[in-house]
Write a structure and sequence with these properties.
Number of helices: 12
Structural class: alpha+beta
Oligomer: single chain
Helix content: 40-55%
Largest sheet: 6 strands, mixed
Radius of gyration: 19 Å
Order of helices and strands: HHHHEEEEEHEHEEEEHHHEHEEEHH
Strand order of the largest sheet: 11-6-1-2-3-12
Distance between the termini: 44 Å
Strand content: 25-35%
Length: about 325
């Protein structure tokens, strides 16, 4: 479900510019629907997200929720000074240390009582970056919004057939270019049955779907449906962004070409630990990827950071 990554940032946010003041009514409902976030942070001050005011790079955690856990996680890194962006896909089985709960799969973080704040903190520790905002949506909401949009055109690379009665999940999509309705869109991004590397195998499909969805969401044809999309999204999306912040980022995100958004996947390999399947990330490759992303989106190291890196290289040498 890693599908509509930036969409629900660059969808209901982009409408803020087009629809004007009335948008604030809907944006207010996004905030009101997640009043428990403030309470969790109040009870757990260490989970307070960092302020985005003085950071040139703003990091958004986007989660798709299935049965309390996050079926997908993506991190959007956005440079508000040059409008460059990158997206990092985080496999749901990534093995991490979750706060006071010990090592587990990263998708279980949001299911803990600390919810989204804990998920933000966990992902931030993993990537060694501050997570300023989160956006969360469940499958039902995604289906409804995509149906209102009239579906999404995508090229399905192969026949997708899978049945799992325990999850009430029945996927049957033929190969070829087509317009997927809400239900099949969710099935498309969830499908992994024939991929030898499971969750990793579906990430390219999710990223391609995300690009197609963003392109469709930001097209003039969607404008007449904007209020319906906003109304539905406000019922299924949770976020810690304020109304003014949403509108502000909408102004910036609306001009980003989806084709210029660089996609990355957390490096590592799948393995079994105590008979449990995990994705174990590669720390060295993660550092290399982070440096590449920083360079891509234009994040420059400070003089102090450069000196520190040189000192570390000297010690290592």
């Amino acid at each position: 479900m890693k599908k509509y990554i930036i969409i629900f940032i660059a969808s209901f946010l982009v409408f803020a510019i087009v629809i004007g003041g009335a948008t604030y009514y809907y944006l207010g409902r996004f905030k009101a629907s997640n009043s428990d976030f403030a309470q969790i942070v109040e009870e757990n001050p260490d989970l307070q997200p960092p302020s985005a005011k003085d950071d040139p790079i703003i990091n958004f955690l986007i989660m798709g929720i299935d049965d309390a856990r996050s079926d997908f996680m993506m991190v959007l890194r956005f440079n508000k000074e040059n409008n460059k962006a990158a997206v990092i896909s985080v496999p749901r089985d990534t093995r991490v240390n979750i706060g006071n709960y010990g090592y587990n799969k990263i998708n279980s973080a949001v299911a803990r009582k600390e919810g989204a704040p804990l998920a933000m903190d966990t992902v931030g520790d993993l990537l060694d970056i501050p997570i300023h905002y989160y956006i969360e949506m469940d499958f039902k909401g995604a289906e409804k919004i995509i149906d209102i949009m009239g579906g999404v055109r995508i090229k399905v690379p192969e026949n997708m057939k899978y049945d799992d009665p325990t999850q009430n999940l029945h996927i049957d999509i033929k190969a070829g270019e087509q317009v997927l309705n809400g239900r099949n869109s969710v099935h498309f991004v969830r499908y992994r049955a024939t991929y030898s590397n499971g969750d990793l195998g579906r990430i390219p499909n999710q990223q391609e779907f995300a690009k197609a969805l963003i392109k469709h969401m930001t097209s003039p044809k969607i404008l007449p449906k904007a209020f319906s999309i906003l109304d539905t999204a406000s019922k299924y999306i949770k976020t810690n962004m304020e109304q003014t912040e949403m509108a502000s980022y909408a102004l910036r995100l609306k001009d980003i070409d989806p084709e210029n958004i660089k996609m990355y996947t957390l490096p590592g390999d799948g393995t079994y630990i105590n008979k449990v399947s995990y994705f174990v990330y590669d720390e060295e490759k993660l550092k290399e990827m982070t440096e590449e992303i920083n360079d891509e989106i234009g994040l420059q190291k400070s003089a102090e950071e450069k000196v520190k890196d040189e000192e570390n290289d000297d010690i290592a040498g």
